[in-house]
Design a protein that fits this description.
The radius of gyration is 13 Å and the shape is globular. The protein has strands at about 1-5, 10, 15-25, 35-40, 45-50, 60, 70-75, 80-85, 90-100, 105-110. It contains no helices and 10 strands. The chain is mainly β. A hairpin with a 6-residue loop joins strand 4 (about 35-40) and strand 5 (about 45-50).
Amino acid sequence: VQLQESGPGLVKPSQTLSLTCTVSGVSVATSSHAWTWIRQPPGKGLEWVGYRAKSGNTYYSPSQRGRTSISRDTSKNQFTLQLSSVTPEDTAVYYCGDELGHWGEGTGVTVSS
């Protein structure tokens, strides 16, 4: 399984951040994997952002205060993270992964006007 994150790099405050995780080696259309987003702000530790379980249920970090959404695009074999109303505190390197320990290399996001 290989995962590759992609995103805009720079987002303005109050906008919605959309990140994509392209998966190879397994189909996101199956229920064989659970998919996770985590992030690491500059100078800080890893933070859990959200999780799509094998059941299809999604769970999000309470610290995001309802701004998070994880979905999948089976036609592109991708799953996405959307984070609305971003602030500079959302600046981080974002990683996608599965429950087996496969992770992408991360994509940097800066929230700045």
